[in-house]
Every structure is written in structure tokens, then in C-alpha cells.
Amino acid sequence: MPTIALSQVRKTYPGSSTDAVRSLDLEIADGEFMCLLGPSGCGKTTTLRMIAGLENLSAGELRIGDRVVDSAVEATFVPPEDRKLGLVFQSYALWPHLTIERNTDFGLRLRKVPKAERIKRTDDVMRALGIEQYRDRYPSQLSGGQQQRVALARMLAVSPGVLLLDEPLSNLDARLRLEMRAELKRIHGKFGTTIVFVTHDQWEAMTLATTIAVMNDGVIQQMGTPDDIYERPANRFVAEFVGSPPINLIEQNANTPIAAAIASYLDGRLHDVGAVALTGIRPEAIVLHTDAKDVPQDSFNLRAVIEGVLPTGGSWIVEVRAGGQLLFMTTHVAPTLSAGDDVTMVVEPAAFHLFDTDGQRMLNADKALGHSAG
């Protein structure tokens, strides 16, 4: 299956003063499960539509394998039907008057695939997705999750080199979303299809993708594995967007006791401590101790007061006020603490995420604080 490469791609819509996508360089390798992740309006769906051929590039070049399929300079454009891609929309777009079997083999009939091969491929993909028993039913007789499987089966039956998914799970309830995430993971492993998946849901991206491209304002902010994105966010936007509860951020130029305490702790550990404008601490990196004797030697610690304990079912969010700032920590062990209790907040040095005045990660600080290599 081919590699997809976008080089210096820009997309501007008529009448708009801003680019929907700008200076986009992106390579999607054969067999990769790539998630384009970001908030509404960040350019992720536009990027998917350009790959599919539903949108023309305003500038730059798009290649699928060795073939240029869209180039603003060369005035080249290969239509969607000639790109050998499969596209599944947010709406399932099933034919209501056709049975599940006929919906599944619809693309094969259009391509005039011989009957014997068509039947075999249809049977194989319906069996793989667990919808074989519904072959004589109609879409209105199936649940949302079952209809989603039919939409995927229709695309997989034609054996596309690349499968493009535009927020396909957003219409499902929480349980079905979880089931379909597992299904998509299994499909990727079974068929080895290159998948490009658009979502605003960070958990979908984290659980499904081999590679995540985080987008904002038409620009890729960071691209990497789910672990890279979460453990080493490249900038403030990525740090805040990925994680629930969101990362705790402390403005170092603020006149607060916690900012002063962090600056004092970092002084001597970093050569350029004065360049730190923002400190991030993930909620799960905070540990609370009721006895000061339990505090580890080299860790950052600060006296704090419990403001609230919020059960979320299987885990708890604890609100802590430390050094004049409200912070959130998470735990999977039922806390014995309650509002008003005095505690010592502890953070290991490797748990600090440091950003400069431009909101960019200070990579030179990672080694000094003991971060694992990215």
C-alpha cells in the first residue's frame, strides 16, 4: 500500500481571510493508523478531504505513492474515484432500500467485480466484522454500531489501499464507541490497511493510533506516538489539549508562592531556570502525604489543603490548594482525605513539563530533570 505525502500544503476557501490549512508537511506510512486530532475548525477534516480528493489544494503537493494526485503548481488533479481510497463519513450513508448484503457489495458491483469473487469478498468482510447474520436485513433494522460496521464493511470489501474515517464514532453512545474502537483496532491488525482517522476525542486518538498529528489553526503542532504526545507535549497547546483532567499549569512570572517555590526548586538543577515561563504537572503525577516524614528526598514538595474529593467511578479527582493555586490530582485508590485536611503535595522532578515564553517545550531541561528520551 502506498505512502501518502503532503508537502507545503495550503488550503484557503474563497472569501476567507485565513488559511484552513497552512504549511502542512505530513507523511503517512504504509500500514499506519494515523489520527488527525484537534478542536473544531483546526483543519483536520479539510486535510482528510484533500487526501480524498473532495477538496483541491490551494498550494503545495499531494502524493500517493510515486503518483502526484494534486499539485497547485503543476495544475494536476486526480479525481477521488481514481485514488483507490475508501472514505467513511460521520453519517453512515447506507442505502435504506438495500439489504445489508447489497450495501456491503455495492462498491464491488460498481467496479463490475466477477460474481464469484464479489460473493467471496462480501462474505469474508461481513464475517470479519460480525454482521453476516444481518445480511438480509435493512439499515433501519440495525443499531447504530451495527450500521457503522456495515459502512466499514462496504469500504473494506473493495480493498482500498487507504481507509479515511471522518469522526465515524461520534454518533454512537459511550458503550458502542468503546466497542467500535476495539473493532477498528482489530480491523487494522487483521487487514493491515492504512487508516487516517479524524477525531476531536483525545481518548479515541490515544487508544487507536500508531501515530497522532495534533492540529490547531491549520498547523500540525506535534506528531508522534500516543506516548510521545502525552508524556512530552511539544508546546502549551498540546499539553492542555491532551489529558483529562487537563494538565495543571503554573505561570512562573505570576507573584504566587507556588511559582516561587518551583523556581527555587529548579534553581541549581537547570542552567536557564530564568527562561521557564510555564510549568506543567499532570494530575496523576501529584502524590499527597499526610506525614512529612514520607516525603522523598529529591522531590518537590509544598504544603497544601484539600478543597474537595470528586468520585468519577473507579477513580477520584482531588482538588488541592497549594501555594495560592488550585491544582487537580487523580488517584485510583479511594482517598481517605476530606475537604480541609492539611497535606504535603509531592512531585518528582521528571514529572515537570517546562515551557518557554513562546509556549514551546524546553527540551534542554528534560535531561536535567530525568525525562526519558523521546
Summary of the model, kept short:
With 374 residues, the protein is α+β, with helices and mostly antiparallel strands. The protein has helices spanning 44-52, 100-104, 106-110, 115-128, 144-157, 174-191, 202-208, 226-231, 236-241, 257-266, 363-369, and strands at 4-11, 21-28, 33-37, 59-64, 67-71, 76-77, 85-88, 162-166, 194-199, 211-216, 219-224, 248-251, 278-281, 287-289, 300-311, 316-322, 325-331, 342-347, 352-355. β16 (316-322) and β17 (325-331) form a beta hairpin.
Can you characterise this structure?
- The structure is a single chain.
- By secondary structure, the chain is of the alpha+beta class.
- It folds into two domains: 4-240, P-loop containing nucleotide triphosphate hydrolases (Rossmann fold); 246-369, OB fold (Dihydrolipoamide Acetyltransferase, E2P).
- Helices cover 27% and strands 29% of the residues.
- The chain has eleven helices and 19 strands.
- The strands form four sheets. Strands 7-8-9-3-10-11 form a six-stranded mixed beta sheet, with helices on both faces. It has a five-stranded antiparallel beta sheet with strand order 2-1-4-5-6, with helices on one face. Strands 14-18-15-16-17 form a five-stranded antiparallel beta sheet.
- The longest helix is centred in the middle third of the chain and has 18 residues, at 174-191.
- The relative contact order is 0.11.
- The mean pLDDT is 90.
List keywords for this structure.
single chain; 374 residues; alpha+beta; Rossmann fold; OB fold (Dihydrolipoamide Acetyltransferase, E2P); 2 domains; five-stranded antiparallel sheet; 27% helix; globular; nucleotide-binding; ABC_transpr_MalK/UgpC-like; ABC-type transporter activity; ATP binding; Carbohydrate ABC transporter ATP-binding protein (CUT1 family)
